[in-house]
Amino acid sequence: MKILVPTDLSDNADQALNFAVSYAQQQCATITLIFSYFAVYDFAAEAVRMAQTIENNAKAELNKIISKVGRDVEIDFKIIQGTVANAIFSTANNDDYDLIIMGTQGASGIKKNLIGSNTAKVIKESSIPVIAVPFGSSFESIEKIKVAVDLQHDKEGIFRKLIKLTETWNLPYEIIHIENKPNFSKKIIFKGLESYLNENFPDCDFSFEMLQEINTDKGLENYVKNKSDSLLVMFSKDRGFLDFIFKHSHSVKMVYHTHIPLLVIK
């Protein structure tokens, strides 16, 4: 397995890397750190000097990071000139990465908002799974995996991806679905999902809960509010589901300002 970890060299990016290192050790995976920058300049000569300075400083910092964690996992780095999202997408797609792990916040003020927006963009547009790691969370603190299903876009292959990514954690899975009103058809589908998962993944520990909330996405936010020991998993077969999520400001906050790690699988 190959894991891509974007970094802006902030404390939160370092925390996301620590999460990735712990995960990689379980999966026998390799990690690539990616640092991107966008130089603003007026003259070509100035551009060369600025780019060289940025890259030299970044290389020094990245080498320091590798010297600290390189004993625990195989790790290298790339430095790319361009926007954060474009650097991530081009690297992930061209080099066949299996997973992106990134922090949700970096520096304060406007940088914090930009970094949050970059995380949201990657989650929304990435074709490979993404784990967003909020500040203050750690791999070791996760004791449960909460899987939110919409019972519309959930297909067999997406559950197999989930199990492949998380089975080495040996943690219980809590499958949750939220409806805004009683729905007999969805209850039948949910029961079918329960039977399917228990039959096809007998070594996994599943529990199932169907909740009713007037506002389903707000209900999910409330459900995970006090679940600091959990990883939240959301599926998206197509872009429509995440488009719905990103229309609501409180849900955007849940995606990249959430207090628990979020895994999005497509």
From TrEMBL:
InterPro entries: Universal_stress_UspA, UspA. SUPFAM superfamilies: Adenine nucleotide alpha hydrolases-like. Coiled coil: none annotated. CDD domains: USP-like. Residues 2-134 form the UspA domain. Belongs to the universal stress protein A family. This is UspA domain-containing protein. It comes from Cyclobacterium marinum (strain ATCC 25205 / DSM 745 / LMG 13164 / NCIMB 1802).
